[in-house]
Amino acid sequence: MANFVEFLKENELAWQPSFQGVLSDGTYGYGGALIVEAGKQISPDRKLPPKIQAKQVITILDDTMKFFACELESFHDLAPLVEKYKDFLVSGGLYLLYVTDLEKAGTFEYEGVKFTAFPLDESSVWNELLELADLDKSDMKRLKKQEEKIEAVYEELVGTDVEETSASYEEMLTFVGESSKQLMGAV
């Protein structure tokens, strides 16, 4: 299995990263988006934006993903996401999905990996994680480095029951509706 950093570089999968680096315990942290399905190559040096991406990703890895949280535009994007990153997903990881077309939260298994998915209306993944971990934004502001903030959220979430009502993957598909995310700014 390739190292995650090498995998991202070799396959050009990091998209608009906001943080990449080693955390205090020697694990690797990444924040940004991950390409699930690349955009069309329109010239040798120019590509369209990704067709499918995991947005607002926050992940912690050693050889595998210990923690992964992201926004997906559609619950249907889970299958290609898992296919692309399956070498880094493990059954004991903490995987949280915030999905804009999901109408009901649930915890389910897909390809032997447990995920908890939540509807995402207008908030950010970061704000949702802070709320889920019961952390105050003012406490987070005291931490100066991005890696400290990621570690604090992860440490709090590991000790928190984040699971929702148990469902099968097929049941989760029945919770898919229209995208509920509110667009901000000029349209």
Describe the biggest sheet? 7 strands, mixed
Please state the average pLDDT score. 91
N-to-C CA distance: 44 Å
Oligomer: single chain
What is the ordering of alpha helices and beta strands?
A: HEEEEEEHEEEHHHH
Measured on Cα atoms, how large is the radius of gyration?
16 Å
Q: Beta fraction of the residues?
A: 25-35%
Major beta sheet, strand line-up: 1-2-5-6-7-9-8
The overall strand count is 9
Helix content, binned percent: 25-40%
Looking at the structure, what is the overall shape? globular
Structural class: alpha+beta
Contiguous uncertain segments of 5+ residues: none
Number of separate helices: 6
Quick overview:
The protein has helices at 4-11, 78-85, 125-132, 137-142, 146-158, 169-174; strands at 14-22, 28-37, 41-43, 46-47, 52-61, 65-72, 94-99, 106-110, 113-119. The chain has 187 residues and is an alpha+beta fold.
How is the secondary structure organized here?
Layout: H1 4-11, E1 14-22, E2 28-37, E3 41-43, E4 46-47, E5 52-61, E6 65-72, H2 78-85, E7 94-99, E8 106-110, E9 113-119, H3 125-132, H4 137-142, H5 146-158, H6 169-174
Q: How would you describe this protein?
A:
- The protein is α+β, with helices and mostly antiparallel strands and 187 residues long.
- 26% of the residues lie in helices and 32% in strands.
- The longest helix has 13 residues, at 146-158.
- The protein is globular.
